[in-house]
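Pipeline run #58 for the internal structure catalog. This entry was flagged by the ingest filter as a single-chain record with no existing model, so it goes straight to prediction. Upstream metadata was stripped on purpose; only the residue string is passed forward. Reviewer on rotation: M.T. Logging verbosity set to normal.
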Amino acid sequence: MAHIVLVALAGLTYLLVLGPIVIVLITAFSPTDFFVFPPPGLSLRWFAAFFNTDSLRDAFLRSIQIALTSALLATLLGSMAALFVARRKGFLASLLQTLFLAPLIFPAIVLGLALLLFFKLIGGMPEFIGLVLAHSILGMPFVIRAVSASLLAVDPVLEEASQSLRAGPLRTFGLITLPLIWPGILSGAMFAFILSFGELNTALFLTGPGVTTLPIEIFSYLQFQGGQLVIAAASAVQVGMIAVMVVILERLVGLSRVVRSN
C-alpha cells in the first residue's frame, strides 16, 4: 500500500511539473489563431512569427549573449571561490561561504533593486554590463556548490603526490585537480546559463529602452499585446535550447556524473 501511495505521489509530481510544459510545447505547433487544446493540427507558423518579430528575435539573441557571458563570468569567479573555501575550516571560511551563497537566500527582485540603486550611486552602468553582473551574481552560488562538491570528492593525497614530484600549484591544478572537478564546473556553468536565460526579476530593474531580454519581452508581450501562441513558440524554443544543452552535457561527461557533482 505504501508503495502504491509513493508511486501515485511521484506520478502527481511529474504531472504537475511536466504537464504545463507539455501543454505549452504542443500548443506552440497549433495552426489556429487562438489557444485551442488539443490543437486541430500541426504548424510551424508561430515559430516563423516568433523569428520574424524583430523585438522577440532581438531579445532572444540578446538573452543568449547575456547568458553566455554571465555563465562564463560566474563559472570563473565561482570556481575560484570554491577552490579557496571548499577545504578550509574556521570562521573566515564559514563567513565567506555564507556570503557567496547569499544570492540563494535573498529574493532576486531585492538584488535587482539593490543593483539599480548601486549603479545610480556610481553614476550609471550600461544595461548589458549591468545585466551580466546581476546574472553572474545569481549564478555564482550554483557554480560554487557544484565545484565544491567535486573538490571534496578529490583525494588531497593526489595533489600532495603531485607536489612531492616538484609540480607547482598551477601544474598540479591543471594536471590533477581540473580533470577531476570539471564535471562540477560544467554542471555549475549549465545551471548559471539556464538561470540567466530565464531570469526576469532582476532584469525588470536593469533593462532599458532597446535593451530587453526575452523574459522581459515575453512578459510585456503577454501583458500588453496578447499573442499567447507566439509566446508558446518562444517558450518551446527556450525548452529546446535547454534540452540540447543537456544532451551535449551528457555526451561530454555523462549526466549521471553531473548530477552527482551537484
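catalog note: The mean pLDDT is 79.
catalog note: The chain has two domains: 1-43, 53-261.
status: ready for reviewer M.T.
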